[in-house]
Amino acid sequence: MNNLEKQTDGRKTPKSAEDPNAQIASKLRAFYHSVQDDALPQKFLDLLEKLDAVESSVQRAE
To answer: Who's near 5: CB < 8 A, 6+ residues apart?
Structure first.
C-alpha cells in the first residue's frame, strides 16, 4: 500500500513521522486542539444572544 496505511475507519494515514503529510497532519491537529480550547469572545456571544432574540420574536409573530 505504498507510503500509506489504511485505518479502520477508511482514512489513510502516513506511516513515517518524516513524511511531510504526517508533519502537516500533526500540526493541523495541534492547531485545531488549541483553537478548540479557546473561549468564545464576548462580542460573539452578544451577537448570538441578539440572533436568538430576533428569531424568537419572528416565531411569535407567525
So the answer is: 12, 13, 14, 15
